[in-house]
């Protein structure tokens, strides 16, 4: 909305609405709800990619490139996953699946592949699942695929083991199309109030009849509802490509325009689930015996849960005459305190430390320390 001079605004009749002169063509309604803070999904515009912008030779499930969006595959395929600049108007990035080794056979009982997104359960309590007032949700997204046909988006509630799916159609190959799906509320469902997964979405690219034979658009305890109606296999040809962006899940039965947030805010939201410390980061530590060093990692935001430590390069003690080059694989979590941004880490493969003495340590050899608390 263009900015208005308050002197030009006049009050309408007793409706409580404010209107502006006719020549502006703009109406401000005090009764209208704010459209801010609608988007439940994080990084739906695929701008954040802390792990890197490309992963080649991917043959198994896992988080690889764009944050919060996970690759799932139980097929014998191989893909390259990218944060791509290919995108529709209004967006700068997308999540790109480039098939490099095909698997045309999806007849196996567990055969399936797609992109998944999990929502933290305590962020979904306003849905009221398990009550008579369970709220509907609307999912909107942009899609571009080289394979036309009927696709399914699946949903799963881990706390009650209930499934739902709805279909959409890719009408034109290699063309950006926006899709909208409304998900009914589940009065028989359950989303616990905790930091686990409350709802997982599945953008299916391939699925066997185990998952596709249901009727769809209804919550059920049957896994056949997970990908009901899906009838394409994007992984079936090495020439195929699939892109997705603009993923917005919101409460209600109407899709609203994508809620864009600042890069800094989106990054901080992602860092609750995955945080990296780069080369030359220094951590304060204290020796515990001659070989054990406890260090404190201060994260940008509180992590969702106790993390898995990973990374590459070395951790080295500064200013001490010790065996000071330790592989990142030697770092583990000593203590995690929920709802704080501090994680105590332990390195127990040093030698020559002085007990109870301060010993700072840092990342060397162009290394990276990662703390993964993904759902």
Brief summary of the model shown:
The chain is mainly beta. It has two helices and 23 strands. It is globular and about 65 Å long.
Could you characterize the architecture of this molecule?
The chain is mainly beta. It folds into 3 domains: 1-32, no CATH class; 54-270, Jelly Rolls, CATH 2.60.120; 274-372. It has helices at residues 209-212, 263-271, and strands spanning 10-11, 18-19, 27-28, 54-58, 70-73, 78-84, 94-101, 112-120, 137-145, 149-157, 162-170, 177-183, 197-207, 241-251, 274-277, 282-283, 285-287, 293-298, 308-317, 326-327, 331-336, 342-347, 361-372. The strands form 5 sheets. It has a 6-stranded antiparallel β-sheet, with no helix packed on it. The chain is globular.
Write the layout of secondary structure elements.
Elements lengths: L9 E2 L6 E2 L7 E2 L25 E5 L11 E4 L4 E7 L9 E8 L10 E9 L16 E9 L3 E9 L4 E9 L6 E7 L13 E11 L1 H4 L28 E11 L11 H9 L2 E4 L4 E2 L1 E3 L5 E6 L9 E10 L8 E2 L3 E6 L5 E6 L13 E12 L3
Antiparallel strand pairs: 1-2, 2-3, 4-6, 5-8, 6-7, 7-14, 8-13, 9-12, 9-14, 10-11, 10-13, 15-23, 16-23, 17-18, 18-22, 19-20, 19-23, 21-22
For the record, give the distance between the C-alpha atoms at the N and C termini, rounded to a whole number. 38 Å
Overall strand count? 23
Please work out how many helical segments DSSP would assign. 2
Q: Tally the structural domains.
A: 3
Strand content: 35-45%
Percent helix: under 10%
Overall 3D geometry?
globular
Biggest sheet details: 6 strands, antiparallel
- Which CATH architecture of the largest domain would you pick? Sandwich
Strand-pairing-aware structural class? mainly beta
- Per CATH, what is the topology of the largest domain? Jelly Rolls
Strand and helix order: EEEEEEEEEEEEEHEHEEEEEEEEE
Instruction: Supply the CATH superfamily name of the largest domain.
Output: Galactose-binding domain-like
Query: Average pLDDT across residues?
Result: 90
């Amino acid at each position: 909305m263009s900015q208005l001079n308050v002197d030009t605004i006049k009050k309408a009749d007793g409706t409580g609405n404010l209107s502006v002169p006719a020549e502006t063509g703009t109406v401000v309604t005090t009764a209208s709800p704010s459209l801010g803070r609608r988007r439940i999904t994080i990084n739906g515009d695929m701008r954040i990619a802390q792990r890197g912008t490309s992963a080649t030779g991917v043959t198994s499930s896992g988080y690889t490139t764009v944050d919060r969006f996970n690759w799932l595959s139980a097929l014998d395929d191989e893909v390259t996953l990218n944060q791509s600049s290919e995108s529709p108007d209004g967006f700068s990035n997308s999540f790109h699946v480039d098939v490099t080794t095909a698997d045309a056979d999806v007849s196996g009982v567990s055969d399936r592949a797609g992109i998944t997104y999990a929502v933290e359960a305590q962020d979904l309590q306003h849905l009221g699942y398990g009550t008579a007032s369970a709220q509907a949700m609307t999912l909107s997204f942009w899609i571009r695929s080289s394979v036309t046909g009927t696709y399914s988006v699946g949903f799963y509630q881990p706390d009650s083991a209930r499934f739902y799916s709805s279909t959409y159609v890719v009408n034109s190959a290699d063309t950006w199309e926006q899709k909208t799906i409304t998900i009914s509320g589940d009065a028989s469902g359950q989303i616990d109030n905790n930091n686990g997964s409350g709802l997982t979405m599945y953008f299916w690219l391939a699925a066997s009849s185990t998952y596709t034979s249901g009727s769809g658009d209804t919550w059920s305890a049957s896994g056949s509802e997970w990908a009901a109606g899906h009838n394409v296999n994007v992984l079936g040809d090495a020439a195929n490509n699939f892109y997705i962006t603009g993923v917005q899940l919101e409460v209600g039965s109407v899709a609203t325009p994508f809620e864009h947030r600042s890069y800094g805010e989106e990054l901080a939201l992602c860092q609750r689930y995955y945080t990296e410390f780069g080369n030359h980061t220094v951590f304060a530590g204290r020796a515990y015996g001659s070989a054990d060093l406890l260090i404190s990692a201060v994260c940008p935001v509180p992590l969702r849960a106790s993390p898995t430590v990973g990374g590459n390069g070395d951790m080295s003690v500064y200013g001490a005459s010790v065996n000071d080059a330790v592989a990142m694989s030697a770092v583990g979590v000593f203590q995690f305190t929920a709802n704080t941004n501090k994680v105590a880490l332990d390195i127990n493969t040093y030698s020559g430390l002085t007990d109870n003495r301060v010993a700072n340590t840092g990342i060397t050899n162009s290394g990276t320390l990662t703390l993964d608390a993904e759902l």
